[in-house]
Amino acid sequence: MTLWPQRFADFVARKEAEACAAVLSPFRTEVLHADPELVAIGDDWSRALFDGPFFVSRPPSPALPATNLVFVQSRNGNTGARNPSTLGGGDADKHLIYEGLSRVAADAVMTGARTIRGGNLVLSTWHPELVSIRSALGLPRHPIQVVATLGGAALDDDLMFNVPEVRVILVTVQDAVDRLRDGLRSRPWIASIVMSDSAGFGEAFRELRRRGVHTMSCIGGVTLARQLIDAGLIQDLYLTTSAIDAGDPETPLSATPLHGELVVRKHGTGADDGVVFEHTRLRSITGRIV
Question: Which of 47, 89, 115, 248 has a beta carbon 3.0–4.6 Å from 80's, enabling a disulfide?
């Protein structure tokens, strides 16, 4: 445990240095249909690179958080890859959107345990401009780390579970909590939300809202993403399509077409020429915007 503070300090320094060193080519807007219900966020730096404000939804009800889903797919529609950077989203997508605007106003970032397993990471924002936006919004330096797991988590191995200043919430089932009892007892900064079964994400999201999560960003994996979409818990889909064919074959984000209202479509430039970013407000199975 005594090694974790230094590992975290090294990780933060590396991520901040990478973000500052990245040369980001600006996006150019093709489509803009900004609903007045959406909230525009950003500063002069982000608006110049994103070619305008970034839009997020308000919570869909007093009981649920506003939740966005952030994904990269290859040109041939694959989202699965051992190393997601090989899908070809580019630096602007990574530093401005994925680790930036999609979570800069978020109280929490949600992921599946498989996505982070063995990872030396904390899901946050790293560029100083983005950190400043979070500060101006009155948010903590790092969002709450929400980890969805049915089988438990490697509490002794993964960085995010061993940084007391970073709040963690496990969304899980009782069997997993029982297996993790000793590890959780020694980590009071990790809380648990116990679902009645593996399909209980609706109740988990309501409990997250009760615990102060008003806005959340989800990064997958694809199994978790599909469950949340099917449950009608995702309002905003931020999907970047790369300019290359890559990824594990036959790994689309959804097995069926997703329907919603296109808010923006933007094109990458420079080193990211051919990259397309789209923000879609998803429709529920009833046809309503979530």
Answer: 248
**Which residues on neighbouring strands pair with residue 260, listed in sequence order?**
282
- Alpha-helical (H) ranges within 77-220 are 91-92, 113-116, 128-136, 174-179, 181-185, 201-210
Beta-carbon-side half-sphere exposure of residue 118 (alpha carbons within 13 Å): 3
Number of helices followed by number of strands (H, E) in the chain: 9, 12
Q: Tell me phi and psi for residue 159, to 5 degrees.
A: -55, -45
Q: Which residues contact 288 (CB under 8 A, 6 or more apart)?
A: none
Per-residue pLDDT tens over the stretch 143-187: 999 999 998 899 999 999 999 999 999 999 999 999 999 999 999
Helix, strand or coil, per DSSP, at residue 228: helix
4-282 has which fold? Dihydrofolate Reductase, subunit A (3.40.430)
The rounded distance, in Å, linking the Cα atoms of 42 and 59 is 19
Mode of pairing for the β-strands spanning 215-218 and 66-73:
parallel
Q: What residue spans define the domains of the chain? A: 4-282
- The predicted model scores a pTM of 0.95
State both tokens at 208. 């997250």
Distance CA 190, CA 156 (A): 13
